[in-house]
Amino acid sequence: MSHFNHTTPIQIRMSDLDPFVHVNNGSQCHFYDIGRTHYVENLNGKIDWGTLDLVLAHLEIDFKSPIRIHDEIVCDTKIYAIGNKSMKMEQQLREVNTGEIKSVCRSVLSGFDRKTGQSMVIKEEYKTKIIAFEKNDSII
Q1: 53-107, pLDDT tens digit by residue?
Q2: Domains of the chain, start order
Q3: 131 contact partners, CB below 8 Å, separation of at least 6
């Protein structure tokens, strides 16, 4: 199991369920959004969505086991690689009581200049905060 320094509790709602009474795959994407948002806010404080200079550029999810309404789920999140204009994030939805990994998500976040609509270099302050938080200076 990968090591994660950030965990976000996830609340499962009735509207998250599909006809099989499992959490819908689309809802799991939303759970990963929640974990990603909490991770960024943990590093930088409350997000100003009008000035945020990171965008989600890629997302892939492996669904391993159904999530049910009474499962106690958390979203573990980490950044494991930072390049010049993008960074790679790994997340997992984990059942707290059993430790079972329900799904795994890999994504790429890209620096984004809102004025030009183009990619931009990841700010050094982000890199510094991430390296300190992850306790890993080899991610660059």
Answers
A1: 999 999 999 999 999 999 999 999 999 999 999 999 999 999 999 999 999 999 9
A2: 6-139 (3.10.129.10)
A3: 82, 137, 139, 140
Tokens 């945020």, residue? 52
- What is the residue type of 118? Q
For residue 112, what are the contacts with CB-CB under 8 A and spacing of at least 6? Answer: 53, 54, 55, 118, 119, 120
As a whole number of angstroms, the distance between CA 5 and CA 88 comes to: 15
